[in-house]
Amino acid sequence: MRNIEPGFHVFGSDGVEIGTVANCSREFCEVNTGVLGLGQPIYVPMDAVRQTEGNNVYLNVASEHVGELNWSERPTGGSESCATTYAGTMPTQPSEGATATGEATASPAPGASELTPATIMSVGRGWPVICSEGKHVGNVVASRPDGLVMERGWFIFRHEVLAPARTIERIDDVGHRVYLGVDCAAVNRFQSV
């Protein structure tokens, strides 16, 4: 990924422009929003950046959810506080009988091999999917009881694949990420939807 510089345009995962980069550090980018950049600035954590292409920055969060995130205040301290700013702030729709967002009871215990269909259905659109090697392999497009549909690739090479429920190791409700129990090579063999 190339360095992000002032003047770069920032887009949500849905392709809608959010604003323009005013400043960037190792932990976050200050983004001017609104008409002519006169809106409220937001502070986008670097872990929310999916990719850069030319002078464009693409996030792993849809533009419609950016206003719901805790990005309106400038992060203080080191990179740890910035990670906390992003983790656990995206709203979710808890399934019936589930506890409040941020509580880990909907996620399986570490080492659990199966998840319930209700837990899988609680995964939100845009959540990053991470393979067992720790690499980002796609973003959730839809949740189904039998697995997650995720988008992979870029621009004209984008395609959707199904990550079967049996390949999901755990769902991080606080960090809003899905961790697979298979390596990147296995992800490349997932069936197209």
Known CATH architecture of the largest domain: Roll
Spatial strand order of the main sheet:
4-3-2-1-6-5
Question: What oligomeric state do these chains adopt?
Answer: single chain
Order of SSEs: EEEEEEHHHEEEEEEH
Helix content: 10-25%
Percent range for β-strand residues = 25-35%
Count of extended strands: 12
Radius of gyration: 17 Å
Distance linking N and C termini = 28 Å
Mean pLDDT: 76
Principal-axes shape call: elongated
Q: What is the third-level CATH name, the topology of the largest domain?
A: SH3 type barrels
What's the structural domain tally? 2
Helix and strand topology:
Blueprint: E1 9-11, E2 17-24, E3 28-33, E4 42-45, E5 49-53, E6 56-59, H1 63-66, H2 79-86, H3 117-121, E7 128-130, E8 136-144, E9 147-152, E10 159-164, E11 168-172, E12 177-180, H4 184-187
Parallel strand pairs: 1-6, 7-12
Antiparallel strand pairs: 1-2, 2-3, 3-4, 5-6, 7-8, 8-9, 9-10, 11-12
Structure summary:
The chain has helices at residues 63-66, 79-86, 117-121, 184-187, and strands at 9-11, 17-24, 28-33, 42-45, 49-53, 56-59, 128-130, 136-144, 147-152, 159-164, 168-172, 177-180. By secondary structure, it is mostly beta strands.
Report on this structure.
- There is one protein chain.
- The protein has 193 residues and is mostly beta strands.
- It folds into 2 domains: 9-86, Photosynthetic Reaction Center, subunit H, domain 2 (Photosynthetic Reaction Center, Chain H, domain 2), CATH 3.90.50; 104-187, SH3 type barrels.
- Helix content is 11%, strand content 33%.
- Strands 4-3-2-1-6-5 form a 6-stranded mixed sheet.
- Strand 9 (147-152) and strand 10 (159-164) form a beta hairpin.
- The longest helix has 8 residues, at 79-86.
- The chain starts with 8 loop residues before the first strand and ends in a 6-residue tail after the last helix.
- The model is unreliable at 78-114 (pLDDT under 50).
